[in-house]
Every structure is written in C-alpha cells, then in structure tokens.
Amino acid sequence: MSILSKYIFGIFAVTLLASSMAHCAPRTFVANDYGAKGDGTTLDTASIQRAIDAAAAVGGIITFKPGIYLTGSLFFKSGVTLDLPEGSTLIGSQRLQDYPELPTRIAGIEMSWPSALINVRSQDDVKLTGKGTIDGDGPVWWKSYWDLRAKYQSLGLRWASDYDARRPRLVLIQDSSHVLLGGGITLKRSGFWTVQVLYSQNVHVDGVIIRNNIDGRGPSTDGIDIDSSRNVLVEHADIDVNDDALCLKSGRDSDGLRVNRPTEDVVVRDSIVRSGAAAITIGSETSGGFRNIDVYNITALQGVPSGILFKSARTRGGSATNIRIHDLTLEGVAVPIHINMNWNPSYSYARIPPGLKSIPPYYKSLATPVPPAQGLPHFSNVHIWNIKATGAKTAFLVSAYPDAPLEGFHLDHLDIQATTAGTIANAKNWTMNNNDIRTADGSKPVFTNAPPAGRK
Predict the structure, then answer these.
(1) Residue 356 covered by a domain
(2) Does the predicted TM-score (pTM) go above 0.90?
C-alpha cells in the first residue's frame, strides 16, 4: 500500500470510527410510514423526502419495505444513512419537471442543470448503502440525447449536444464531505453520468455495482467521475457502462481555468471494468489539474478499447503530475497505453455557428477563446508499472504537442502482447525499463518528435 493509500485509508478509518461512536443506536425511519407506496406507479418523491427530513433531525437511518419506488430528485442531509435493502428499488421518474434545476457543473462547465436522482449537496456525514437498486430508467433520456444530437450534427452543434439534452445524473455528491456510497448497492440505467463526486472531499465509494448497458447502450453513461475533489477513495467497483468507467476530471476550457480546482489525493483500486472507455481515464476535462493520484489492481475485459487513457485538448489547459498507475490486468483491451491531447475535436472545440439566435450563456463559456499558452495541457511525473495486457491491437498510441510534451514518464515491468507496437509522439525524458513488448509484426514503439526513451 502506497503512502497516499495509507493516508486516505487512515482518514476514512478515523471518520467511520468517529461516526460509529457518535451514532451508537440510530433511529430507523421507514419511508412507507411516511406515505411511500412502492407500487412502481405512484410518485413517492414527497413521501420519501419527508422520511429523509425526519431522519436528518436525529441522525437516523431511512429504509424501505420491498417494492419499486417511483421518485424524482431526493436530497439527503447531514447525518442521514440510507439503507436500501435487497428487494427495494428507487426508480427515476421520466418527467424532467421532477428533477429541479440547480447550479452545478456538467461536463466541465458550471451551469444550472436538472438535479440528480440522488443528491448530497453541501452536506456532511452521509451514507448511501444497502443491497438494493437505484435505477435511472435511462432509455427515455438516452433517446432524447440521440434525437437532439442527430439534429445538432448538421447544424455544427455536436459539441452542444451533451449540454442541451438535459438528462438527470443518478448520484451527485457536491460540495460535501465524509460521504460513503457503497455496500453492494446496484446503480443502473443512469440517464447521464452515474456517480459524480464534485467539489467534495473525504468521499469513499466502496462496493458499487454499475450496470448501464441494459435496454440499450446509454450514451455518456460514465461510471464514477471524480471532479475537482480531494481525498477520495474508490474501491471494489464493478462497472459496465458506455463511456468513461473510472474517471478523473477537473473542468473544461475557459470556465474550468476560471474555477481552477484540482482533483488531488485520490486512490482508485481493486475494481473491474466490464465495459467502458478505459480501465482508468484522466480527462478530457483537465483545466484544474491533477495531483497525487494512485490507481492499482484494476481489471478491464474484452471490448474495453483502452487501458490507461489520458485525454485533453489544446483549449483545456491544466497539469497532471505525480500520477502512479500499476498492477492492471487488460484482457483483450485494444490499446493498453493511450494518450491523446487532441481528443475528439468535433466535441472538444466549440464554435458558435454564424447567425445562431438565442445563444445561452454556457455556449459563450464553451466558445470563449483560451490563449494558446494557457490552453495546452501538461502531463509530467507519471509512473506506470506492472501492466499485464493480452490480445491488444496496438501497445502504444501516444501523442501530445511539441511545445507541451509528455515529460518524465517512467514505464517499467510492462508485459504486453499486441499486434503492433504503435507510436509515441512528443515525449521528453521518458524511461522504459524491464519491459516485455511482444508484437505479431515484430515492431517496436516508434518515437516521433521525441528522443527514444531511456532504457536499462
């Protein structure tokens, strides 16, 4: 266990011990006693919220009888524990008006947005646990996105699709501290991102099961996004999604540079990605930067396109340093080491079409020019080791910018079996030691716009 891991683990151990001592015999509140029907058709939002509010008054536990509880946004408060037992499901309403709009950050931009189904906003000491299910009933929201995107594509507004298709997230932890999410809870069919940890600290996500590829493949259904937050531990996650699975973010372009809040002191470990963009992703929202990140013991299975994925754009800015990623098992992952600092240009670079009327403020935020020197992302001091990859297509697909090279990367004890070795562009002061890269075509990594990596 690294020093950072021990530090964060110690924080959570002390926090949980203190919480246990403070709440030796918490009172239990059953949502059904406050009017919740659990019949799958009655909208139970108000009844469940009354039970939450009652529990908050005494630091109690809210629980449910077996059933399917149709609900809009719920807001959990300090001192409350959700115990969602097996056989109980919270399922999201399909009506947008059941998710009140509140200030937040979406895909790197601060704006008003529909509340999540489950919200912890500006609270302390909240636990969301149990063997039950939280279901976003995603297909209706996924269709709204695809319909809008098809329309926007021809208008030059591909970049605006994620912002204008207003889809509820499943769980939002925002401006909060000492939050626990886990205990075997199942999160499925999220309308948009599944778990967003935003502007928060001392958050522990432990033992969540995320299933978003049910009834179709939900677009942008990220698994766990750690967004400009600190002292976060994610472990024992089991993830099946259609976008970033385990992801670190810190803001987008001019708005992210304005906020300038890093993601730092994070441990992600002991998890499996069955489907998703990568085993671990940093970006593409990089504006606030990243520091002190530990990722280890992650398995990614056949069909996951990337193992380690760093992505950004020339307008993002930000820096990432002191990143450690090790002990990954990649089975049939196409590109084990994937770094793209010019990711998805049609999405990354916002341009308001001439003649467009009724321009919302967030369009202007997205399209605000970023000075070139401020917009280049900088990744340095990255250590990657003990990576076991089989069935890969390309071992390395790495590119940055000549005036913002990937600097000070150390890669050792990589065991990669791939069709071809691939390329590494715009790298500086790399070392590659004790690696076994076996390629079907006999190739070795080609370094372009960079000296070959040092080797031992």
Answers:
(1) no
(2) yes
